[in-house]
Amino acid sequence: MKYNKKFQTLILALLLGFLVASCISNVEEQLEEQLEETKVSYINNVKPILEARCLSCHGAGGIFPDISSYEKVNAHAVSVKEEVASGRMPKGGPLTAAQIKSIVDWVDEGALEN
Ligand code: HEC
Predict the structure, then answer these.
(1) Which of 5, 97, 106, 114 is the 20 to 30 Å CA partner of 35?
(2) Phi, psi at residue 89, to the nearest 5°?
(3) Phi-psi region of 27 (alpha: psi -120 to 50; beta: other; left: phi over 0)
(4) Ligand 1, residues 42, 53, 55, 58: which to mutate, most atoms within 8 A of Cβ?
């Protein structure tokens, strides 16, 4: 009888432990998913800005650097960030604060092809 009680308590403790552990890992997974979702997207955010405001000058065969594809932007990501953050680019009218933030954050997040 005594042994059974101890055994029951042990099982209960194990079950509780398991529950708590699975809860925590669920929360971690959700946080990671949210982080992924809040990263700036190259395809949805950055590329349209570059197309509208940069490629008239920095397209293939245009002024250096050519930033007309992901690989090419990626190769010049740091200078693109610096030019945009400082307001030196684009020539011909500033970007909005939100557009600048998109490009700066995207580069800071690793200039992903996302
Ligand atoms: C009207 C043409 C024009 C547009 C539009 C333009 N640029 Fe430029 N960009 C230039 C010229 C010209 C240079 C050469 C340096 C200079 O004259 O300042 C240059 C230089 C650069 C450089 C190189 C700076 C260095 O280190 O030498 C980068 C990076 C750059 N531009 C990024 C951009 C980005 C990003 C955009 C869009 C947000 C953009 N540019 C829009 C004309 C343009």
Answers:
(1) 97
(2) -125, 150
(3) alpha
(4) 58
Query: Which of 56, 63, 101 should be mutated for ligand 1, with most atoms under 8 A from CB?
Result: 63
CA distances 57 to 62, 87, 103, Å, are 6, 16, 18
Same domain, 65 and 17: no
* Average of per-residue pLDDT across 2-27: 83
Has residue 8 been placed in a domain? yes
| Separation CA 42–CA 30 (nearest Å) | 23
Q: Is residue 113 part of a domain?
A: no
Please write the tens of the pLDDT for every residue from 5-15.
888 888 888 88
33 and 60 share one domain: no
